[in-house]
Amino acid sequence: MINKLKNIFSKEKITKTYKDFSPKDLMTDEFFKKWAKNGDGESSHFWEKWIQQYPEKSKNVAKMKRIINAIDYAEKASMDTKDYVDIYEKVLSHSPLEQETKQVAFKIFWFIKVAALFIITLGSVHIFNLWTTPTSEVAMEEVNEKLLTKECPPGVKTTIRLMDGSVVKLNSGTKLTYPETFSDSVRHVWIEGEAFFKIKEDTIRPFIVHVRDLELKVLGTSFNVNSYNEQNEIALITGKLLVSQLKGGSIQLLPNEMVAAKEGSQLQKKKFDKEKVMAWEKGILYFDNDQQEELFKKLEMWYGVEIIVENGFKIKKGYTGKFDNEYLENVLEGISRTSRFTYRLEKNRVFIKSIK
User: Fold this and answer.
1) Is residue 334 exposed (0-12), middle (13-18) or buried (19+ Cβ within 10 Å)?
2) Backbone phi, then psi, for 270, in 5-degree steps?
3) Is there a contact between 285 and 322 (Cβ–Cβ < 8 Å)?
4) Could you give the 3-state DSSP secondary structure of residue 203?
5) Cβ-contact 182, 163 below 8 angstroms
6) What one-character-per-residue DSSP string does 78-99 give?
7) How crowded is residue 343: how many other Cβ atoms within 10 Å of its Cβ?
8) β-pair type (257-262, 269-271)
9) Which residues contact 293 (CB under 8 A, 6 or more apart)?
10) How far apart are CA 8 and CA 98, in angstroms?
11) Cβ–Cβ < 8 Å for 281, 313
12) Which of 34, 66, 75, 246 is the S-S candidate for 213 at Cβ 3.0 to 4.6 Å?
């Protein structure tokens, strides 16, 4: 049957595309499920190009990816990857199709869908609820175990060892939500703020970190997540990391690569300065041409204080420097000399004013 279909495609091309697929069609399509769970290789190239062609479908694609990863699917492929790519790439074409071709293609696609639908039914009887649930809540609702939350207030850092042996170091002002016991199929956690993850390798259960509109999927690796500001920054130290968006785009990171993107914007991959990104984890307060707002915000978060600027004081230039496990007063002394201000400390408040 496969060979017959491939021979037909060599003469005629199909008019139907994935644009016509409903969410249910995507859920039962093996080629889509393979990409949703692995997100690399030829399938990744295909789906990223498809999303670019049909951006209005990106939300449906993102929902289906979340649902597929939340359910413990059995891996049952009806044909090998090469056959899928060969056939489905041709599904995107736009020239006429003979009736015989349509009938053969329909039979194969229908067989695949029925087989996959049977697997999905066994995996979950709540598929409708999953589809209608907001994507950011899908994974959390699938967790049957008790969820725990650890919050670090400004001025405090802490390290958490999860039940699987993974270690998460939380920076000041960070919140981590995680199950008391991970399931047998997947390990989900949710992060707000900044944290360094050192994941225990597990070839059976992927580790998935949810941060705003991003989903980070790993098996065993170490990476830093920073979502303090509008821009999310994911920096990979070791291993491999798949970064996916709710809207459907994804990027695979290798060591010394990072993704930086505002929520909802396109993912961009670039290199990063490991010393700068990981400075906080070693207790080093790092400034890189920081303007006044960012400079004082870092100090407030790092030391758990409130900074009050008096008399409309403004730092004219950005400040660059680093302080290795220094007291607040020593840091203020260093910054004030180049930024031309005086300060006074009153309990957990710092008053800043210009030098007359």
Assistant:
1) middle
2) -155, 170
3) yes
4) coil
5) yes
6) SS-HHHHHHHHHHHT--S---H
7) 16
8) antiparallel
9) none
10) 9
11) no
12) 246
Burial class (CB within 10 angstroms; exposed 0-12, middle 13-18, buried 19+) of 199: buried
Q: How far apart are CA 260 and CA 254, in angstroms?
A: 14
Cα distance between residue 89 and residue 83, in whole Å: 10
DSSP-derived pairing of the beta strands 257-262 and 231-238: antiparallel
349 with 306: CB under 8 angstroms?
Answer: yes
| pLDDT tens digit at each of 356 positions of the chain | 555 445 544 444 444 467 667 766 776 777 777 777 666 555 667 777 777 677 667 666 766 776 666 554 334 334 445 554 555 555 444 444 444 444 544 444 444 444 444 444 444 434 333 333 344 455 565 555 688 999 998 989 999 999 999 999 999 999 999 998 888 888 999 999 999 999 988 878 889 999 888 889 886 788 999 988 878 899 999 998 888 887 777 888 889 999 888 877 788 888 998 888 998 988 999 998 898 899 999 999 999 999 998 877 888 888 998 899 999 999 999 998 888 888 889 888 999 888 76
Find the angle CA(62)-CA(66)-CA(69) to the nearest 5 degrees.
135
Q: Specify the amino acid at residue 245.
A: Q
Question: Among all chains, which residue has been given the structure tokens 């180049």?
Answer: 338
Half-sphere exposure in the Cβ direction for 106 (13 Å, CA):
8
In sequence order, what DSSP letters do the residues of 212-251 get, joined into one string?
Answer: TTEEEEESS-EEEEE-SSSEEEEEEEES-EEEEETTS-EE
User: Considering all CA atoms of the chain, what is the largest pairwise distance in Å, rounded to the nearest integer?
Assistant: 88
47: its two tokens: 């789906």
- pTM, rounded to two decimals: 0.60
Token pair for residue 231? 């821009």
Residue 139 to residues 1, 65, 129, 183: CA-CA distances in angstroms? 38, 11, 12, 12
Name the one residue in this structure whose structure tokens are 């359910």. Answer: 71
